[in-house]
């Protein structure tokens, strides 16, 4: 028979002792559970959805990846500022129990600071680094206080994150307004420098040399035409042929010529019937001679009048053509000089225009950012959401009743079995032939079936002896 069988037999025959020892150990555990202070833990969870789309972002704008741990957010949630916010939100300074603890601790700091430290010690902010969920665990001696602390801390954390974002946005908003004021001054200064430069140099059309060059070419063409016209007036011939032709078209001369033609026709008719010395012939010849003299005088007078008018016209045309040619030559020279000056100053003009454009673009960019920040401050938004509300815990987290009772039962049973084996080793019993043979060292040759009462009598008689 092996040793394990002997121990099992000893435990089987001493089971009452094993139960007594186990009961004593479990009783001690129950007494500890009754006297030990209880600690309750309540948990609230916060979810940080940093990858959610932002309605304030411009369409197509690339957002940086946020798939990382929440180390910064966790540090913010563990800060004293959040703990102080919890003290204010839950009005912990009015709690008489906490006031008594503060006085009993003998702390040399104000009550609100002591309470902030107490809140930080009572609340644990945890994140495993692989998820975007932060657990806020609050421990207290009462389940209601644990749930209150966890929910209050989660709400204060959300409010603090929102306040940090909006306060930063407000500071940035004020900075933008100051920058916009300076930018508008810069734009006004750039416009003033450009206007002054244009007034001094006379550059127009935004300094476009093509327009000025086209204008210079037009003036040159007009000047060439005027010079050609002036040269043509200088080459005009005498005025006599022109005056003779114009005089022949005079109404007075045409009238005289008509009368002369009529008189000559009548004279021809009279010559056919009358002699040359006939009085009528002589009278008609005298009238024809008088009309011829009158025609000659009228031609001379008309030629002189037309010649004088033509001479005045030619002189006027020459003077006008010369003046126009001179004016256009001066204008061409001035435009060429202006074009040369513009070419020399176009670099400065371009620089001033670039400065103005840059100032205007910077001002427009600041105004766009200002409008966006104003919208963001009016519509505050955070990426944190309270995922789970802390519930009032039903069982304490410390001491752990189930585990302690299980361990006490196991320990009591093991201890009882160990004591049973120890007693068996100290005072062995022969409960069967095998144990009797092992105790006496001789084989068993037979067995007697005796009544239980006879066995008891034999044992009692042995005890008496």
Q: What fraction of residues sit in β-strands?
A: 5-15%
Count of helices?
Answer: 14
Annotation, overall tally of beta strands: 4
Head-to-tail CA distance between termini: 32 Å
Order of helices and strands: HHEHHHHEEHHHHHEHHH
Q: Spans of 5+ residues with little confidence (pLDDT < 50)?
A: 58-67
**Globular, elongated, flat, extended or rod-shaped: what is the shape?**
rod-shaped
Largest sheet: 4 strands, antiparallel
Q: How would you state the average pLDDT, rounded?
A: 77
With strands numbered from the N-terminus, the spatial order across the biggest sheet is 2-3-1-4
Please render the helix and strand layout as text.
Layout: H1 3-13, H2 15-35, E1 40-48, H3 71-77, H4 80-89, H5 96-105, H6 111-122, E2 123-126, E3 133-140, H7 143-201, H8 209-234, H9 240-248, H10 251-273, H11 279-378, E4 384-388, H12 401-426, H13 433-440, H14 452-464
Antiparallel strand pairs: 1-3, 1-4, 2-3
Helix pairs in contact: 1-12, 2-12, 4-6, 4-7, 7-11, 8-11, 9-11, 10-11
């Amino acid at each position: 028979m092996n040793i394990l069988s002997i121990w099992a037999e000893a435990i089987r025959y001493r089971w009452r002792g094993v139960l007594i020892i186990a009961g004593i150990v479990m009783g001690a555990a129950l007494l500890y559970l009754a006297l030990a202070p209880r600690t309750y833990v309540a948990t609230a969870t916060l979810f940080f959805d940093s990858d959610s789309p932002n309605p304030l972002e411009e369409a197509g704008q690339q957002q940086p990846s946020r798939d990382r741990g929440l180390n910064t957010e966790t540090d913010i949630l563990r800060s004293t500022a959040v703990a102080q916010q919890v003290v204010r939100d839950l009005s912990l300074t009015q709690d008489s129990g906490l006031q008594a603890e503060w006085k009993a601790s003998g702390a040399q700091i104000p009550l609100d600071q002591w309470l902030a430290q107490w809140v930080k010690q009572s609340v644990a902010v945890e994140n495993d680094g692989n998820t975007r969920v932060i657990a806020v665990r609050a421990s207290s001696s009462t389940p209601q206080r644990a749930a209150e602390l966890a929910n209050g801390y989660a709400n204060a954390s959300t409010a603090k994150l929102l306040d940090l974002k909006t306060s930063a946005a407000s500071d940035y908003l004020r900075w933008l307004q100051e920058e916009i004021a300076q930018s508008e001054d810069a734009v006004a200064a750039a416009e003033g420098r450009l206007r002054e430069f244009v007034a001094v140099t006379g550059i127009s059309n935004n300094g476009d040399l093509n327009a000025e060059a086209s204008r210079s070419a037009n003036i040159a063409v007009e000047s060439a035409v005027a010079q050609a016209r002036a040269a043509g007036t200088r080459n005009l011939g005498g005025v006599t042929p022109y005056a003779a032709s114009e005089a022949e078209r005079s109404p007075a001369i045409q009238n005289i010529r008509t009368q002369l033609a009529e008189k000559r026709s009548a004279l021809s008719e009279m010559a056919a019937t009358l002699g040359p010395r006939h009085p009528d012939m002589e009278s008609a010849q005298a009238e024809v001679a008088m009309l011829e003299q009158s025609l000659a005088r009228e031609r001379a007078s008309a030629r002189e009048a037309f010649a004088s008018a033509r001479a005045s016209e030619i002189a006027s045309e020459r003077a006008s053509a010369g003046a126009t040619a001179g004016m256009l030559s001066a204008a061409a020279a001035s435009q060429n000089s202006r074009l040369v000056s513009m070419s020399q100053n176009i670099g400065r003009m371009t620089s001033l225009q670039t400065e103005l454009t840059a100032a205007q673009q910077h001002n427009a960019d600041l105004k766009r950012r200002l409008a966006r920040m104003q919208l963001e401050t009016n519509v505050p938004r955070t990426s944190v959401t309270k995922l789970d509300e802390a519930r009032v815990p039903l069982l304490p987290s410390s001491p752990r009743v189930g585990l302690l009772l299980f361990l006490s039962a196991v320990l009591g049973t093991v201890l009882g079995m160990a004591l049973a084996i120890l007693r068996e080793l100290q005072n062995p019993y022969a409960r069967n032939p095998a144990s009797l043979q092992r105790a006496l060292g001789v084989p068993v040759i037979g067995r007697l079936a005796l009544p239980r009462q006879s066995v008891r009598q034999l044992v009692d008689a042995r005890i008496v002896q």
